Amino acid sequence: MKRTPVPRSVARCIAVAAVQLDPAQGMQHLHQLDMRGSAAAQGAVVLGIESSCDDTAAALWDGRRIVAQRQADQDIHRQYGGVVPELASRAHQSHILPLIHAVLADAGLVDHALADALSGESPKAAMARLQGSAAPIDAIAVTRGPGLLGSLLVGMGFAKGLALGWNKPLVGVHHMKAHVLAHFIEPPFPPFPFLCLTVSGGHTQLVRVDAPMAMTVLGQTRDDAAGEAFDKCAKMLGLPYPGGPEIDRLAGEGDPERFRFKKPEMPELDFSFSGLKTSVRYFLDKERRRDPDFAQKHLADLCAGIQADIIAMLLDKLERAVQKSGLKHVALAGGVSANAGLRGALARLAAEKGWTTYIPALAHCTDNGAMIARAGAFLYEAGQRDSMDLQATARLAW
Ligand code: ADP
Ligand code: MG
């Protein structure tokens, strides 16, 4: 079998992992959590690491719930009006170590004083100390794709280092499937089978979910994602990045009927958002020739119109998917689920059609470590174990 040499960055993580974890104390702490918890069977304890785009995030799932979660934003991209891949990887590099320390400390698995005392110890000695001791974590789950390759590699390298250092299994997680499984972090959990509309900055997908490991993509975007459409239109209006929340805020004060844009017709359950973006661009170019301040003067109405168009496209396909599948349990995932207009419109449609809707807490809709830990626990419990040969993949197949 082909063996991949352990890179230097991974070796560094092994040393870090070995000196920082105090298994005895961690076990005791998890035990206490256990005593406070319900009588339900204890599932796997999984550390989840996410670094696919511009959020460095990690969380610990203790078998029943998330006991610690942290996320580090990367403000650096704001000044460029979008994510700069190279800057994202560098920011992940500087965030990931303190972030994971913080998660482990929040969960009570790390004794900071002990970690400081041990920091002078050699990796070899630290590894020897760990041998035979039962660390309270069952597996390390990490996003393996899709995403920015440089960003994914930071999380993957770190996760491999931890897995080697702690002698724990590595579990690779598909980022988009984890967005769907975020619905199982906190109740109410949707019953199987259900439909999930995942709308984020990089993806727009309609998924039929029969079980945690049985999901089928019914339709997806052929070009831009819904979040990308928000962000690109916002940029044309001179709004800061990320534009989705800005459009959402301004749309609340605008008239959605004043400006509407051309929407492309896509076959079946697929989406397309690039036509809307082009239509907004031509319209603004034309109006700005007459009045350079046009966008500023009509900002709220423009935002309301753009948002209404995006929502109409999303809900039209969702309604068709419900009709086709007969499923009336409908879930929303991804960063765009934060959109107030979308939430309102979905609630009205659901009431009218008799659907039951599910939207995770906002922190679990945008990219987060909790969904990776939760998805990792499902995969680990189903027997998935990945080797050190696991690759980060930018365009990971479903
Ligand atoms: P990705 O996984 O692609 O990085 P996330 O799931 O983190 O995306 O979501 C980020 C996207 O969500 C961005 O495109 C952002 O503009 C969009 N977004 C966040 N909040 C809102 C909102 N309130 N309305 C519309 N879009 C939003
Ligand atoms: Mg995402």
Describe the overall structure.
By secondary structure, the chain is of the alpha/beta class. It has two domains: 8-181 and 367-381, Nucleotidyltransferase, domain 5, CATH 3.30.420; 190-359, Nucleotidyltransferase, domain 5, CATH 3.30.420. 47% of the residues lie in helices and 15% in strands. It has 15 helices and ten strands. It has helices at residues 8-20, 23-36, 85-106, 112-118, 123-130, 149-166, 175-181, 226-236, 243-251, 274-290, 294-297, 299-325, 340-353, 362-365, 369-381; strands at 46-50, 56-61, 66-72, 139-145, 170-174, 194-199, 204-211, 214-220, 329-333, 356-358. The strands form two sheets. Strands 3-2-1-4-5 form a five-stranded mixed beta sheet, with helices on both faces. The chain has a five-stranded mixed beta sheet with strand order 8-7-6-9-10, sandwiched between helices. Helix 13 (340-353) links the parallel strand 9 (329-333) and strand 10 (356-358). The protein is globular, with a radius of gyration of 23 Å. Residues 1-8, 22-27, 29-40, 113-119 and 129-134 have low confidence and may be disordered. Residues 175, 179, 200, 334, 367 line the site of magnesium ion.
